[in-house]
Design brief:
- The protein is an alpha+beta fold and 295 residues long.
- A five-stranded mixed β-sheet has the order 2-1-3-8-9. A four-stranded mixed β-sheet has the order 4-7-5-6.
- Strand 8 and strand 9 form a beta hairpin.
- The protein folds into two domains: 121 residues, 60s Ribosomal Protein L30, Chain: A (2-Layer Sandwich); 122 residues, no CATH class.
- The protein is built from eight helices and nine strands.
- The protein binds iron/sulfur cluster.
- Iron/sulfur cluster binds next to helix 5.
Length: 295
Protein backbone atom coordinates (compact mmCIF):
# COMPACT_ATOMS: atom_id res chain seq x y z
CA UNK A 1 0.00 0.00 0.00
CA UNK A 2 1.64 3.23 -1.19
CA UNK A 3 1.51 6.48 0.77
CA UNK A 4 1.33 10.07 -0.45
CA UNK A 5 3.04 13.29 0.65
CA UNK A 6 0.00 13.97 2.90
CA UNK A 7 0.96 10.88 4.91
CA UNK A 8 4.44 12.28 5.68
CA UNK A 9 2.87 15.67 6.53
CA UNK A 10 0.53 13.88 8.91
CA UNK A 11 3.44 12.04 10.57
CA UNK A 12 5.18 15.42 11.04
CA UNK A 13 2.09 16.96 12.67
CA UNK A 14 1.51 13.92 14.86
CA UNK A 15 5.14 13.91 16.07
CA UNK A 16 4.86 17.60 16.97
CA UNK A 17 1.67 16.86 18.96
CA UNK A 18 3.10 13.74 20.64
CA UNK A 19 6.04 15.73 22.01
CA UNK A 20 3.92 18.60 23.36
CA UNK A 21 1.10 16.45 24.74
CA UNK A 22 3.44 13.93 26.37
CA UNK A 23 4.90 16.72 28.52
CA UNK A 24 1.47 17.82 29.74
CA UNK A 25 -0.58 14.68 30.14
CA UNK A 26 0.67 11.81 32.28
CA UNK A 27 -0.56 8.35 31.20
CA UNK A 28 -3.67 7.19 33.14
CA UNK A 29 -1.99 3.98 34.33
CA UNK A 30 0.82 6.07 35.88
CA UNK A 31 -1.65 8.43 37.59
CA UNK A 32 -3.59 5.46 38.99
CA UNK A 33 -0.36 3.88 40.31
CA UNK A 34 0.69 7.14 41.98
CA UNK A 35 -2.76 7.50 43.57
CA UNK A 36 -2.58 3.93 44.90
CA UNK A 37 0.95 4.52 46.25
CA UNK A 38 -0.19 7.77 47.91
CA UNK A 39 -3.07 5.96 49.63
CA UNK A 40 -0.74 3.22 50.89
CA UNK A 41 2.04 5.56 52.03
CA UNK A 42 2.63 5.47 55.79
CA UNK A 43 5.37 8.19 56.02
CA UNK A 44 4.23 11.80 56.30
CA UNK A 45 7.00 13.15 54.04
CA UNK A 46 6.19 10.53 51.40
CA UNK A 47 2.51 11.51 51.50
CA UNK A 48 3.46 15.19 51.00
CA UNK A 49 5.60 14.38 47.93
CA UNK A 50 2.81 12.30 46.40
CA UNK A 51 0.39 15.15 46.95
CA UNK A 52 2.80 17.51 45.06
CA UNK A 53 3.05 14.99 42.21
CA UNK A 54 -0.73 14.76 41.94
CA UNK A 55 -1.03 18.56 41.96
CA UNK A 56 1.57 18.82 39.15
CA UNK A 57 -0.30 16.19 37.14
CA UNK A 58 -3.53 18.15 37.60
CA UNK A 59 -1.92 21.48 36.63
CA UNK A 60 -0.51 19.91 33.47
CA UNK A 61 -3.94 18.70 32.43
CA UNK A 62 -6.11 21.63 33.49
CA UNK A 63 -3.76 24.61 32.99
CA UNK A 64 -2.05 23.40 29.81
CA UNK A 65 1.35 23.39 31.57
CA UNK A 66 4.23 20.97 31.23
CA UNK A 67 4.43 18.73 34.30
CA UNK A 68 8.22 18.95 34.73
CA UNK A 69 10.67 21.46 33.28
CA UNK A 70 12.81 18.78 31.62
CA UNK A 71 11.77 18.35 27.98
CA UNK A 72 14.08 15.34 27.78
CA UNK A 73 15.75 13.51 24.95
CA UNK A 74 13.11 12.84 22.26
CA UNK A 75 12.94 9.08 21.61
CA UNK A 76 10.62 7.37 19.10
CA UNK A 77 9.87 3.68 18.53
CA UNK A 78 8.29 3.36 15.10
CA UNK A 79 6.62 0.11 14.00
CA UNK A 80 6.02 0.05 10.26
CA UNK A 81 3.25 -2.17 8.95
CA UNK A 82 4.58 -4.67 6.42
CA UNK A 83 1.90 -3.67 3.87
CA UNK A 84 3.02 -0.02 3.80
CA UNK A 85 5.31 1.12 1.00
CA UNK A 86 7.20 3.78 2.89
CA UNK A 87 10.20 5.88 1.94
CA UNK A 88 12.33 5.51 5.10
CA UNK A 89 14.33 8.69 4.51
CA UNK A 90 11.14 10.78 4.16
CA UNK A 91 9.67 9.16 7.27
CA UNK A 92 12.76 10.08 9.31
CA UNK A 93 12.65 13.61 7.91
CA UNK A 94 8.99 13.96 8.99
CA UNK A 95 9.78 12.77 12.53
CA UNK A 96 12.72 15.17 12.86
CA UNK A 97 10.67 18.09 11.50
CA UNK A 98 7.79 17.31 13.90
CA UNK A 99 10.27 17.36 16.81
CA UNK A 100 11.72 20.69 15.69
CA UNK A 101 8.27 22.23 15.21
CA UNK A 102 7.12 21.15 18.69
CA UNK A 103 10.14 22.94 20.14
CA UNK A 104 9.72 26.14 18.12
CA UNK A 105 5.94 26.39 17.95
CA UNK A 106 5.08 25.65 21.62
CA UNK A 107 7.88 26.77 22.43
CA UNK A 108 9.72 24.13 24.49
CA UNK A 109 13.16 24.28 26.07
CA UNK A 110 15.61 22.54 23.74
CA UNK A 111 17.51 20.13 25.99
CA UNK A 112 19.81 18.79 23.25
CA UNK A 113 23.45 19.88 22.88
CA UNK A 114 26.54 18.68 21.06
CA UNK A 115 28.54 16.39 23.37
CA UNK A 116 31.81 18.38 23.54
CA UNK A 117 31.06 22.00 22.56
CA UNK A 118 27.59 21.91 24.25
CA UNK A 119 26.14 23.75 21.25
CA UNK A 120 22.33 23.97 21.30
CA UNK A 121 20.41 24.37 18.01
CA UNK A 122 17.26 25.24 20.01
CA UNK A 123 15.33 22.59 18.07
CA UNK A 124 15.59 19.54 20.40
CA UNK A 125 17.48 17.88 17.54
CA UNK A 126 21.11 17.28 16.63
CA UNK A 127 23.40 14.58 15.33
CA UNK A 128 21.48 11.24 15.67
CA UNK A 129 18.79 13.01 17.79
CA UNK A 130 15.86 12.39 17.98
CA UNK A 131 16.61 8.76 18.70
CA UNK A 132 14.45 6.66 16.36
CA UNK A 133 14.08 2.88 16.61
CA UNK A 134 12.41 1.20 13.62
CA UNK A 135 10.72 -2.17 13.59
CA UNK A 136 8.38 -3.95 11.16
CA UNK A 137 5.02 -5.66 11.74
CA UNK A 138 3.88 -8.32 9.26
CA UNK A 139 0.42 -8.08 7.61
CA UNK A 140 -0.30 -4.59 8.94
CA UNK A 141 -1.14 -1.33 7.17
CA UNK A 142 -0.63 0.85 10.25
CA UNK A 143 2.24 3.05 11.33
CA UNK A 144 2.61 2.89 15.11
CA UNK A 145 4.64 5.54 16.90
CA UNK A 146 5.56 5.44 20.58
CA UNK A 147 7.21 8.60 21.92
CA UNK A 148 9.05 9.31 25.15
CA UNK A 149 10.73 12.57 26.23
CA UNK A 150 13.37 10.97 28.47
CA UNK A 151 14.36 13.23 31.35
CA UNK A 152 18.03 13.42 32.27
CA UNK A 153 17.63 12.71 35.99
CA UNK A 154 16.42 9.22 35.21
CA UNK A 155 18.42 8.73 31.99
CA UNK A 156 21.66 9.42 33.87
CA UNK A 157 20.73 6.41 35.98
CA UNK A 158 21.45 3.86 33.22
CA UNK A 159 23.72 0.92 33.94
CA UNK A 160 25.09 -2.04 32.03
CA UNK A 161 27.10 -4.99 33.24
CA UNK A 162 28.44 -7.82 31.13
CA UNK A 163 28.06 -10.54 33.75
CA UNK A 164 29.33 -14.02 32.99
CA UNK A 165 27.09 -17.10 32.96
CA UNK A 166 28.58 -18.22 36.30
CA UNK A 167 27.04 -15.10 37.92
CA UNK A 168 23.67 -16.65 37.09
CA UNK A 169 20.24 -15.27 37.97
CA UNK A 170 21.46 -14.28 41.44
CA UNK A 171 24.06 -11.98 39.83
CA UNK A 172 21.36 -10.34 37.69
CA UNK A 173 19.13 -9.64 40.70
CA UNK A 174 22.05 -8.34 42.77
CA UNK A 175 23.08 -5.96 39.99
CA UNK A 176 19.56 -4.52 39.61
CA UNK A 177 19.17 -3.95 43.36
CA UNK A 178 22.63 -2.37 43.71
CA UNK A 179 21.88 0.13 40.91
CA UNK A 180 18.50 1.16 42.34
CA UNK A 181 19.98 1.65 45.82
CA UNK A 182 23.00 3.50 44.39
CA UNK A 183 20.74 5.78 42.32
CA UNK A 184 18.82 6.83 45.45
CA UNK A 185 16.97 10.11 44.91
CA UNK A 186 18.62 11.01 41.58
CA UNK A 187 16.03 9.49 39.19
CA UNK A 188 13.07 11.23 40.98
CA UNK A 189 11.46 8.11 42.50
CA UNK A 190 9.17 6.29 42.56
CA UNK A 191 10.59 4.93 39.35
CA UNK A 192 9.72 2.35 36.76
CA UNK A 193 12.75 0.06 36.77
CA UNK A 194 13.48 -1.13 33.24
CA UNK A 195 15.67 -4.22 33.08
CA UNK A 196 17.22 -5.76 29.97
CA UNK A 197 18.55 -9.30 30.17
CA UNK A 198 20.53 -10.99 27.40
CA UNK A 199 21.35 -9.93 23.84
CA UNK A 200 24.50 -7.96 22.99
CA UNK A 201 25.54 -4.98 25.11
CA UNK A 202 23.66 -2.45 22.94
CA UNK A 203 20.53 -4.60 22.58
CA UNK A 204 20.49 -5.26 26.34
CA UNK A 205 20.45 -1.52 27.14
CA UNK A 206 17.85 -0.89 24.46
CA UNK A 207 15.58 -3.57 26.00
CA UNK A 208 15.91 -1.97 29.44
CA UNK A 209 14.77 1.39 28.01
CA UNK A 210 11.87 -0.14 26.06
CA UNK A 211 10.80 -2.04 29.20
CA UNK A 212 10.06 1.26 30.96
CA UNK A 213 7.44 2.09 28.30
CA UNK A 214 5.26 -0.93 29.10
CA UNK A 215 1.96 0.11 30.72
CA UNK A 216 1.90 -0.31 34.50
CA UNK A 217 0.11 -3.47 35.52
CA UNK A 218 1.53 -5.45 32.59
CA UNK A 219 3.72 -8.47 33.27
CA UNK A 220 6.38 -10.17 31.20
CA UNK A 221 4.59 -13.08 29.43
CA UNK A 222 7.33 -15.50 30.58
CA UNK A 223 6.24 -16.68 34.10
CA UNK A 224 9.87 -16.92 35.29
CA UNK A 225 10.59 -13.31 34.29
CA UNK A 226 7.21 -12.14 35.65
CA UNK A 227 8.09 -13.73 39.01
CA UNK A 228 11.47 -11.96 38.93
CA UNK A 229 9.73 -8.63 38.25
CA UNK A 230 7.56 -9.13 41.32
CA UNK A 231 10.40 -10.31 43.54
CA UNK A 232 12.63 -7.36 42.57
CA UNK A 233 9.79 -4.86 43.08
CA UNK A 234 9.16 -6.23 46.59
CA UNK A 235 12.86 -5.98 47.47
CA UNK A 236 13.21 -2.45 46.02
CA UNK A 237 10.21 -1.19 47.98
CA UNK A 238 11.74 -2.51 51.19
CA UNK A 239 14.72 -0.15 50.82
CA UNK A 240 12.71 2.79 52.17
CA UNK A 241 14.22 5.22 49.61
CA UNK A 242 10.69 6.46 48.88
CA UNK A 243 9.34 9.36 46.80
CA UNK A 244 12.15 11.82 45.89
CA UNK A 245 14.46 9.71 48.06
CA UNK A 246 13.11 11.34 51.23
CA UNK A 247 11.86 8.09 52.71
CA UNK A 248 8.69 6.14 52.15
CA UNK A 249 7.09 2.86 51.22
CA UNK A 250 7.18 3.16 47.42
CA UNK A 251 10.56 3.47 45.70
CA UNK A 252 9.43 1.87 42.44
CA UNK A 253 6.01 1.66 40.82
CA UNK A 254 7.06 -1.39 38.82
CA UNK A 255 9.93 -3.51 37.59
CA UNK A 256 9.64 -4.40 33.91
CA UNK A 257 11.99 -6.92 32.35
CA UNK A 258 12.54 -7.52 28.63
CA UNK A 259 14.89 -10.24 27.42
CA UNK A 260 16.71 -11.59 24.39
CA UNK A 261 18.77 -14.70 23.78
CA UNK A 262 22.50 -14.17 24.16
CA UNK A 263 25.95 -15.66 23.52
CA UNK A 264 26.92 -18.88 25.33
CA UNK A 265 29.59 -17.04 27.31
CA UNK A 266 27.63 -13.81 27.95
CA UNK A 267 25.12 -12.85 30.66
CA UNK A 268 24.44 -9.13 30.13
CA UNK A 269 22.09 -7.12 32.32
CA UNK A 270 21.07 -3.48 31.91
CA UNK A 271 19.05 -1.12 34.07
CA UNK A 272 17.31 2.02 32.84
CA UNK A 273 15.26 4.00 35.33
CA UNK A 274 12.20 6.04 34.42
CA UNK A 275 11.11 8.81 36.79
CA UNK A 276 7.67 9.16 38.40
CA UNK A 277 6.24 11.30 35.57
CA UNK A 278 6.80 8.36 33.15
CA UNK A 279 5.67 10.35 30.13
CA UNK A 280 4.88 8.50 26.95
CA UNK A 281 2.43 8.90 24.07
CA UNK A 282 1.38 6.67 21.20
CA UNK A 283 -0.16 7.27 17.79
CA UNK A 284 -1.53 5.01 15.07
CA UNK A 285 -1.58 6.44 11.57
CA UNK A 286 -3.21 4.92 8.49
CA UNK A 287 -2.48 5.84 4.85
CA UNK A 288 -6.06 7.17 4.39
CA UNK A 289 -5.33 9.92 6.94
CA UNK A 290 -6.96 8.36 10.01
CA UNK A 291 -5.05 8.79 13.28
CA UNK A 292 -5.60 7.53 16.78
CA UNK A 293 -3.74 9.01 19.75
CA UNK A 294 -3.25 7.19 23.04
CA UNK A 295 -0.77 6.26 25.75
S1 LIG B 1 13.97 12.84 36.35
FE1 LIG B 1 11.88 13.13 35.57
S2 LIG B 1 10.73 14.18 37.17
FE2 LIG B 1 12.93 14.35 37.66
S3 LIG B 1 13.53 16.33 36.79
FE3 LIG B 1 13.96 14.78 35.21
S4 LIG B 1 12.10 14.65 33.96
FE4 LIG B 1 11.56 15.75 35.84
Amino acid sequence: MGVTQQFYDLVENVCRDLYIQSLKEIPPDVIAAIRRAAERETKEVGRRIFSHYLQSIDLGRTQNMIVCQDTGIPIYWVDIGGNLEINGARLTEAIVKGTERATREHPLRSSIVSPLGRKNRQTSTGERIPVIHYDFVPDSDELNILFMPKGSGSENMSFLKMLVPADGVAGIKRFVLEQVVGAGAKPCPPTIVGVGIGGSSDLCMSLAKKATTRPLGSKNPDPELAAMEEELLGAINQTGIGPQGLGGDTTALAVHIESAWTHITCNPVAVNLQCWRAERRRAKIWPDGRTELGF
